[in-house]
């Protein structure tokens, strides 16, 4: 690592800028990955039926180039500067003047802020780098789940393995805690799923939630799982109540649990140990 990055301020600023840039890429992942999966599913179904693969424009994270969904105008490099371009364009397409969703600059800004905070919180070194990668993937999963109620295996499974590899030398927790965290995280929600299904005949959550909590356990260790589950329940109850009251969302409308797990995982990443110590201190 270059010497100037050992300065905490430089380290934080560099990661903040990089976080903004990655936030722009995360918008692409959030928008395109579900569409890529849908194309793959349609192609597999067609193959099983012995039919030709549907003739549609193939989508990847790199192609086609980003463009306005309203008029098809290709986004130039100048129009793709995180947050800045949105402000310069007044939140509108430069070609057709259609409104650009606030989601795009919000994800970019959130990625930059969280990356910078993680760099400042953990300080120069490998731990901050891993924590920032963890946050980036959680952000992508959060917004994909909000949009589609999917937590793609192509993100959750690598997140588990990267977390275990990252903790081989005890970057965040010792490897034993990480392995136990991955196993316990999966089994905890798996057990809740089956108990709920046996009691009600309904599915209360998806398998992606099991894998996401397993990934959080792999990164943060089994010790942070009780706090993560508690925090996700509190966050979910608060946001769910607001959605019901403000948007008059029906109680029967399913609400994805992944975003609440991701938010709880980030809280546990930054403040989990201090929150747990404070709680145990209150118990005497």
Q: Structural class from helices and strands?
A: mainly alpha
Low-confidence stretches: none
Q: How do the helices and strands follow one another from N- to C-terminus?
A: HHHHHHHHH
First and last CA, distance: 44 Å
Mean residue pLDDT: 89
- Summed up, the helix count is 9
From the spread of the alpha carbons, the general shape counts as: globular
Measured by DSSP, the beta-strand proportion falls in: under 5%
* CA-atom Rg in angstroms: 21 Å
Features:
single chain, 284 residues, mainly alpha, 9 helices
What does this structure look like?
This protein is 67% helix and 0% strand. The protein is globular. It is mainly alpha-helical and 284 residues long. It is built from 9 helices and no strands.
In short, what is this structure?
The chain is 67% helix and 0% strand. The chain is built from nine helices and no strands.
What is the topological layout?
Blueprint: H1 8-48, H2 84-88, H3 103-122, H4 126-148, H5 153-166, H6 175-200, H7 207-220, H8 225-246, H9 258-282
